[in-house]
Hints:
Elements: H1 6-9, H2 13-26, H3 40-43, E1 47-51, E2 66-70, H4 71-84
Antiparallel strand pairs: 1-2
Amino acid sequence: MPAHSLFLSRLKPEQRRELENRLFARQNEVCFICDDAIDLELQRKTLEIDHIIPIAVEGKDDENNFALVHGDFIALRRKRMKSQRGRAKVRISDTC
């Protein structure tokens, strides 16, 4: 079971939008995983905020450990994590 962000779950919609805007600017308007451009207005509903260092490996649950990514990558990573349990790990960057 993936660890979930208490920080993110407590944000009001406007606070989350402000966080997305800050991450977007900090990342120079590109996805943290694939470096493809993000169109914040067109893609906002499909974007995800992800932990750079996962909580499961003691990453912090705060803004400095968040990245804005295309939502497809999160779904793909979760699927791969389930299928890779007990095997060598596959980096998500190998799929970009």
